[in-house]
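[job 0412] stage=fold_complex status=start
inputs:
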Amino acid sequence: MVASDTAWKHPSPRLRSLRRAQVAVLALIVAAVGGLLAGFAFGPGPGAGVAVAAILAGALADRFVQRRVRAWAYCERAEDLLVRRGVLITRLSVVPYGRMQFVDVVAGPIARSFGLATVRMHTAAAASDARIPGLEQAEADRLRDQLSALGEAKAAGL
Amino acid sequence: MLVPLLFVAFYAISSGNLGRGVGGTIVRLVALPIVLLFAVISWWVTRWRIEGDALRIETGLIRRRSLRFPLTQIQAIDTVRPALARVLGLAELRLRMGGATGSQGRLAYLSLPHADTLRGQLLALAHGIPIDTAPPPEQVLLSVRTDRLLASIALSRLGVVTVVLLAGAVISLVVAPRVAVGVIGGSGTAILGLVTAFWRRLNSDYGLTVAEAGDGLRLRSGLIDTAAETIPRGRVQAVRMIEPLLWRPFGWCRVEVDVAGRQKSRGENRSESRELRAVLPVGSHAEAAWLLGRLLPDAPSATTPAPPRARYKAPLRYHFLAWGWTDTCAVATSGRLARVTSWVPLGKIQSLRRVQGPLQRRLRLATIHLDTAGRRVGASLLDRDVDEADRALGELTELSRAARKTRQAGGTPVIPPAPA
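[job 0412] stage=fold_complex status=done
writing structure:
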């Protein structure tokens, strides 16, 4: 890896709770709706079966999602930002500070209730993809200010 | 120096769209007075002037808009002349800026000498030299041969589709004439569309001449509607060479350049807007190599092939996978039927990405993408050995940073003089 010697930072541990809550709510809704439908159509036995299957699938999905969250990491180096993500398909982006066009911080209502935000870097290339989800609000603000300051200091023309 | 712009009355019908069908033409004739009125108003309310090192355009009747284009950030300037504008001796100037969206700088229409002078002035300002500097002499590098162009269009995907359709029509005429006549009669729009597509390709690449001047690369082309494009020095984001399967027996290839800032011209559909500007629509390898040398002086050739086990990951692409690099430029080849070679100046790289899928992990392969500004082209080093990919990622990151620094310190790269 490029930055084996440098320190990788990870998204907030609360992102894992957030993702777990999302998966749980989805699994419960699917279990309830699917269970009721199957229960009315085929009787209580199959209904309970469908509900249990949905919850098991949710538990499986949760493991997968947790691994994905754990895989997400970023690293601020002297000249560029590294963002690593993905379990099945691993991606590592190197975005030089000088190439950053703008940085935005997005926090949806659910993320906000967990005190989390997503930081996203944009370059002139549409394919560049550097986003870090689940940062604590303070860390997101710090990163945004840091990145825009560095971007301004090292800006290079197109 | 607030000058009202000269204006073409038939602005709307002259835009060179032949293939909108008969219905479209009727609609257009009915709509003509209305369009005319709008065009007159648009012309009447548009004012422009050069303010310091920026061009300001004020336009709009009800919603006034004031656009300011910093000239040092111009990516390219086009002079577009639809057929009727040529008859009337007029031209339209278009400024291409770096942003992915954003408003385009359009000045329609100016008299031709005025447009040429203005383009020279804008380019002078873009390079930071006095506005009244005489335009540098230009030197023609290459022009495309018409016979070759026609042959190449016939041998393109478009030509193949046409041949297949024609063959289908002939066979069905022989087998079941009555049905065939109905089908052919009913597919009038499709035929018209095909003719239009042919026409567009021919018109956009006809007589394409690449010239080099001190202020950049000039591309001139067009049969009826002409366009002249100026790409200032150091604005080329990537160069791509395509060798389609059917062209290979003749040793032909197509060379395209990518410039930041996408501008959809009128009547362009989506697949065409993704196509890049050809600097050599069709030419021999020698011509391509020479042109490449002028565009990117230090262009390497792709010499390192992919490891043999990449065959399992990309069986159709494997034979074309290779890459190479120097201190200032990287190149990668790929493609299934057509070989596509992409050169990216390292100073233009926006970001680097290393991607590894499950199959690649098993085969110990990885892909490195070099992203550039522009139309989503960049070089991709597909399916390299993991160690090699990691090394390449580290080294290319360093080299691109160094290239960015020298470019900022030393200004624009010097173009070597053309051979006699």
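[job 0412] summary: Residues 85 and 91 of chain A are 5 Å apart (CA to CA).
[job 0412] exit 0
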